[in-house]
Design a protein that fits this description.
The chain is α/β, with parallel strands linked by helices. It has two domains: 196 residues, 2-enoyl-CoA Hydratase, Chain A, domain 1, CATH 3.90.226.10; 46 residues. A six-stranded mixed beta sheet has the order 1-2-3-5-7-10, with helices on both faces. The protein has a four-stranded mixed beta sheet with strand order 4-6-8-9. Strand 1 and strand 2 form a beta hairpin. Helix 4 packs across helix 5. The two termini are 21 Å apart.
Length: 262
Amino acid sequence: MVMTYENVLTEIENGTLIITVNRPDKLNALNNKTIEELHEALLEAEHEKEIKSIIITGSGTKAFVAGADIAEFADFNVTQGRQLSATGHFKLFNFIENYSKPVIAAVNGFALGGGLELAMASHIRVASDNAKMGLPEVTLGVIPGYGGTQRLAQLVGKGKAFEMIVTADMINAQEALHLGLVNHVTTQEELLNKCKEIASKIGQRSSVAVRTAIKVINAGYNKQENGYEVEIEEFGKMFGTGDFKEGVKAFLEKRKANFPGN
């Protein structure tokens, strides 16, 4: 699997695809091209059986992704603004949230605006202790447009989400951990290792069960679905999979499972 992009670096290590947003001169800000390239990299990885999980991070030590590229939409009208948001939701943010393999955000510095929205769309977040997070859109006369108004409230609660969005205040990594916005905080040096450690555990599990778990957890946050009903249905389906048969057989034989991934 060879992928070459302009704004994104990719490498595969032990079944994990590491994607690095590489625009250090712009603090890794998300422009249309970067969103498109992230979409393409994820789309390609979805069909690679050897890839079990994804880590997304930013280049350098200052920023994960310090927001969207404001210069790109400064002159947009109402229709273009709506389209910008809709395309971002479809191609990247909702796409990651519903992705079939776990996506881990390695937040290695500033995660602001679209950068925090990218981290929140990911399934698991690990932050370095120098990270700062916030949604500063109201300082520009707009609101978060890539799912931030919804996901922040889901993760930290409605009251704190209101405060962060309407004041545009940033929080540090320790507060983010306290609020449940991130799963772990590490030093900058240990950040990727911690993410790889989580990815390594995921890689040993049933990829079919992991994919199904992502789908069912998300169903609980979808107003059109009943998460409990989806769980019952998907739980039943697992009994027809090769992974279930191997998992149970391995357990009864007191050995490590070798999941076929079907």
